[in-house]
Design goal:
Number of helices: 18
Mean pLDDT: 97
Bound molecules: 5-phosphoarabinonic acid
Number of strands: 10
Shape: globular
Strand order of the largest sheet: 1-10-9-7-8
Structural class: alpha/beta
Order of helices and strands: EHHHHEHEHEHHEHEHHHEHEHEHEHHH
Low-confidence stretches: none
Helix content: 40-55%
CATH class of the largest domain: Alpha Beta
């Protein structure tokens, strides 16, 4: 099996080999502190050796539960937000037919996502769509009290029970939550739902290889054993004893920190496959929530090319030179299709006729890379042999480890997210949540000032 490859040649033009060599001892120390559990947030390091510790028995248990949902549901709604949602969606969308939910696929349930917004229209339209459908729910929340997810689950649980009765609902509702605490745990135990545990030592954004990601991915019909195998192989390929120059996570962490120190404050993750849109979203959360604190952190942005070359391309080519790009390039598409010939050739594109469409995409990618580098934008490239479970597993672990190293290099607590509470506090105060009386008064005084 090949590995995903990191190419830093076009970032190397902006950062000297001496600077990167100087990062080697710091990167080593940053990875060591993850291994030894001496870094800030060290009670959240359960993801570090997760891939190599997942057993065949556990995969079988997840697959068995997935099978129950697959056999009993036309639609499965995955309720969760942030780390309790993005990893599953990233993998499912990367592997699914782009029009999956419009196909009358009788083998696989339609997977929908909820609990990740407070849009009244979204929820009303979802509930409407589910009327007369055989649907199930995977309720994913570590805390069990996240407003967005709890709201969606209230609606979905009631609708499921009303439509099919409590006995069927018990079969098609599964909880993924804390072992002991929180509303989702209490409800699961009380109602007798099948449930899976989110380990205490794995934070949301590092949890895609726990049941948080694995269960929905299995329900969608994908091979979670291969996903875990890819992650486990990347865990070995990036182990502490792998030399710096051969460890892609260590190199990626070093380059992005060197670029940041040189004033490149924004990293743009680029894909050339629309199916990777949610991989971008997962990555944005992983890096944004991990590094953006204490007044520091690279701002993680993301674009889908070539689509966004027609919107953000101008800014990237000629805007403020504070950016660098990391491109995910998929070597081989899963289909083969040729650029068609046209008798009239009004668009003048017959010179492309007969070429693979992917060849055109690859030349767009290469042309963009050269243009952006010429325009002063350092580029790194992650080459993924093909979009399958195995390589996505590699990609996920590659990014997770690099994030752990990178956060330690930046000297932040990579694994907390205290800033996320600020909006919640204000929202609860504005909604007069019991216990928030003082905050309510303060916020109203601020609004009236
Ligand atoms: O990364 C994180 O910790 C967050 O994104 C959480 O996953 C998110 O807020 C959802 O939390 P919970 O699983 O408790 O509902």
């Amino acid at each position: 099996m090949k590995n995903i490859q990191l190419d830093i040649t076009k970032a190397g033009q902006f950062v000297s080999p001496e600077i990167i060599a100087a990062y080697e001892p710091q990167v080593k120390a940053a990875q060591e502190s993850l291994e030894q559990g001496t870094c800030p947030g060290n009670d959240f390091l359960g993801w570090l050796h997760l891939p190599t510790s997942i057993t065949k028995e556990f995969i079988a248990e997840l697959n068995a539960t997935a099978q129950v949902l697959r056999e009993n549901c036309e639609v499965v709604v995955v309720a969760g937000i942030g780390g309790s949602y993005l990893g599953a969606r990233a993998v499912i969308e990367a592997l699914s037919n782009s029009f999956q939910w419009l196909l009358n696929d009788t083998k696989n349930p339609v997977i929908l996502f909820a609990g990740n917004n407070i849009g009244e229209d979204y929820l009303a339209e979802l509930c409407d769509y589910l009327k007369n459908k055989k649907f199930g729910v995977i309720n994913i929340s570590k805390s069990g009290t996240t407003t967005e997810t709890a709201l969606a689950f209230r609606l979905l649980k009631k609708q499921c029970e009303d439509q099919f009765g409590k006995d069927v609902a018990r079969k098609v509702i599964v909880a993924v939550t804390d072992a002991k605490k929180g509303a989702a745990r209490t409800t699961a135990d009380k109602e007798g739902y099948k449930s899976f545990i989110i380990p205490d030592n794995v934070g949301g954004r590092f949890s895609v290889l726990t049941p948080v990601g694995l269960l929905p991915i299995a329900v969608a019909g994908f091979n979670i054993e291969q996903l875990v195998a890819g992650a486990a192989d990347m865990e070995k390929a990036t182990a502490l004893d792998v030399p710096f120059a051969e460890n892609p996570s260590a190199l990626y962490a070093a380059y992005r920190n060197a670029l940041y120190a040189d004033g490149k404050k924004i990293e743009i993750l680029v894909n050339y496959q629309p199916k990777l849109h949610y991989m971008n979203e997962w990555w944005k959360q992983l890096y944004g929530e991990s590094e953006g604190k204490d007044g520091k952190g690279i701002f993680p942005a993301a674009v889908d090319f070539t689509t966004d070359l027609h919107s953000m391309g101008q800014w990237i080519q000629e805007g403020e030179r504070t950016i660098f790009e990391t491109v995910i390039s998929v070597e081989n598409p899963n289909h083969k299709m040729l650029f068609p010939s046209d008798e009239e050739n009004l668009d003048g594109l017959n010179f492309l006729a007969g070429k693979r469409i992917d060849e055109v995409n690859k030349m767009a990618e290469l042309g963009t890379l050269l243009a952006h580098v010429d325009g002063g934008v350092p580029n790194m490239r992650i080459s993924v042999p093909e979009l399958n479970e195995y390589y996505l597993g590699q990609l996920i672990y590659f990014f997770e480890l690099a994030c752990g190293i990178s956060g330690n290099l930046l000297n932040v607590n990579t694994f907390n997210q205290p800033g996320v509470e600020a909006y919640k506090k204000n929202m609860f105060a504005l909604l007069n949540k019991p216990g928030y009386e003082k905050e309510s008064e303060e916020i109203r005084a601020k609004l009236n000032a």
